[in-house]
Amino acid sequence: MAKLILSLEGQVIREIELNKERMTIGRKPHNDIPIENLAVSGEHAAITTILNDSFLEDLDSTNGTLVNGVTVKKHVLQHNDVIEIGKFRLEYSNPQASQETPDFERTMILRSPLAAQPKPAAEEPQNFARTRIDSQPIEMEAPPSAPVPQAPKPPVPPASEAPAKPALIQVLTGANAGKELELTKSLTSLGKPGVQVAVIAKRPHGYFITHVQGASFPLVNGQTLDTQPHPLKDHDIIELAGIKMEFFYK
Fold first, then answer.
1. pLDDT at 142
2. The dihedral of CA 79, 214, 225, 228: what is its sign?
3. Is the pTM of this model over 0.85?
């Protein structure tokens, strides 16, 4: 299991297992990892762990969050990365973490509809809640070899098998209906922070969606998810933060 090694001025204070999907770091005692120091914000940063990978997000802290000496807002953690918060250091230990250098290269902004009646995609609605989709890369293992099918267009493999083709998310409702996001990265977060957030993980044996944040859980084909990763199948309909999206293989 992934863990953090908390230290101050070279002295190890304690080790923390990342045994929850989302763990917060901050000065206030309600945080999962409380650090009582004035240089640390009340809610300073959060770490979300999906399967073998974890990603760090600075929660608009006053003094910022550093990873390996570089200020970050979001960062996919790699084995032996060092997080610096004030004078405290948290070393990330997880030999199974991906080794590819992360890159948050793309963000899609969506808007939730206020009413059931749709509006034209070109029209800019007012007072709409914003939903973000942030792509995050982690190296994906190559799918296992398989016999070449004779049919010119083989059927799309189920989520239990390695995906032969990349998958996409298409927005079905709201001002950005029709827009598509290719899931080229290994972790893609969707939702409105503070309201409802989920993560789609791209794995050798398929794509999985996991609830991360919010009192209400996302829906897939009208069924409410639980706390466990849920495998996605071709043409599944996801409902998240007031937006409907379709998952499908390219």
1. 39
2. positive
3. no
